[in-house]
Amino acid sequence: MSNEYILRTMMFVPGHNDKLLNSASRSMADALILDIEDSVMPAANKIVARQKIAEYVTAGVFKNFFLFPRVNDRESGYLLKDVYSLTIEGIDGFVYPKSRTGNDIYFFDKLLETIEAEKGFPFGKFKIVPLIETSGAVVNALDICQASERVVAIAFGCEDFIADLEGIHDDEGRSLFTPRAMLALAARAAGVIPVDTVHINVHDLDDFEENVILAKKLGFEGNLILHPKEIEIAHRHYTPSKQEIEDASEMLRLSNEAEKINKGVAVMDGKFIGPPMVIAAKKTLKKVRIIEEIEKRKQERCDL
Predict the structure, then answer these.
(1) Where does residue 299 rank: exposed (0-12), middle (13-18), buried (19+ CB within 10 A)?
(2) Average pLDDT, stretch 156-168?
(3) What global pTM score does this model have?
(4) Alpha carbons 79 and 84: distance in angstroms, whole number
């Protein structure tokens, strides 16, 4: 299921702010996290956020975005109202904050199942993106990923994690290296998309780019972002390059050729092309096709 989603950029947008909602609708982000949680205060604004998000989505303002509102956690007292208000056409699923164990996701899965049944939606329509924000959640990341078939991605929330760890968010990012690697490993083991944490200093694009490059090496497929100016950098690095596309195409060509003549194993640039490399090449080309289709729809949106 996660293969259907391209989440190179998941941009936070406060759900009660008309100016930012309209600005986000003109952005090139892959997905929007329409927020009802931390960025929406005081509590009275959460009601406003629910109403505005529903109005914008119903009106088609966010057509061709993946939409994942971030609801409030299960202990907040707002979760049921958040979810019931926004289980509507046009919403892909929900970012579930403060996911600690698989039990949290199981609970949320059953809540969505109940609402889907009541509203007449097909079972499993609304997906889940757990937000990993504590040391316990990092340790339980694989359990969280596997707790529901609705989980299509998991995302890292570094600031809450560091506070919970009682650690220090150092400039070099050394304190975050291990949890990021653990989260990416858990996501890939479960077959869901790993999405890296936000970059707090939105004005330091050079440092953001360094973090994106590292994240891609660790296995991440996208980033949570706070500002539209981060989009181009993230998309450039999380989109297969021209060289990667050419290599994948050539790898498949040589592999198919070797199979036709019963050669056994193909060789490219002096290296054997084994089954894992063929699988990776197929994934690369499939991702390119999906991205091209998404970018086409985005361009159509911008031309309107």
Answers:
(1) exposed
(2) 89
(3) 0.90
(4) 8
